[in-house]
Amino acid sequence: MKKLLALTLTALMCASLSACGGGSNATTSGSDSAVKAGDTASYAKALKGKKVAVVRNLAAGDHTQQFLDGCVSEGKALGFTVDTFVTDGDDARTQEVTAQCIQKGYDGLIISHAQLSYAYNMLKPDIDKGIKVVTFDSMPLKDGDAKGQLLQDITSTAQDDNALASLSLGFMMEEFDMKVLKTFMGPGIPPLDRRNVVYTKLEQEGKIKTVEVIAPSDTANVRGDMTNKTAAILPKYSKGSVDAIWGCYDELAKGVLQSLNDAKRTDIPMYTIDISNDDIQLMLKNKDVWKSTAAVDPKLIGIVDTRLLAKKFLNLETPEYFNLKANLVKTSQLSSDISMTNLITVINGWGDATSKEDSLNEPWMDEVKKINGK
Fold this sequence. Notes:
The chain has 374 residues and is an alpha/beta fold. The protein is 42% helix and 16% strand.
């Protein structure tokens, strides 16, 4: 059983890596075509003073702050002026702020967590105006159709959600026959939809049995809503009737964890996706329950998105899609002196901004930073 499962999850992850390599269409049009390849001084001059807006459609938590720090620190090092906007999951506000960026004269946008239903129509006016755009966990597909075409000249970045799901589910399934309480939010949220593809395949193959799905209805208070919903269903499941909880997103999982603690239920282990300093502390405090998470360094995501934007400003080749490498973090690997800044000491390759393959670190970028005194 374990060998068969390992083969299945390996195949899923390989398919994900193949998909990453498929999106390599270049973006080559624009007003910076005079920049000469290899001329670092020209690069630095062309990038100097570029005005960038980062719009993050999630709550202003630890994970969000690290993402924004990555965008701001890398942007300033490359010569940009960077403004950040946090819209707290308010889709109407996200669209309003993005529309205002045209009037405010931004040269580039980094958009995080726009939903399928409006991302294309929201960003098309910016592209038509000549603004360079990179998105994270947003799929600006025409008419919100998952089978449609990506809005031209945009790079859509993501964590490798296929690998995140495969890592978290694979570790979860090492010990159990798998009667699972599943957390989910969607459809229509691109990263969660992608993770759900892996889960659904394993479910269809009979490797997972979902006993119940816990989903929030209050998007303005996801954690609290999940706590209340989990509290309502826990009495239905006696000890031994549920093998594990799968948290497809850490904010959902933290609500579930609160309910488990309130009910003094330590009999159901939890396996999740995404990480922050808050998560690390909760994992250590709840070792008997929170067993692992699969994640990408959020600061590195911000750095990568900013590097892609720099390449667009210079009319260098950029892919349509770019996935960041996922890591599995086991609670047993953590200790009280571990945080997001030194997680690399226990997770090989974590947040490695020096790897060109994983983080688009181009030699000319280092030279531009030297010119800018960074």
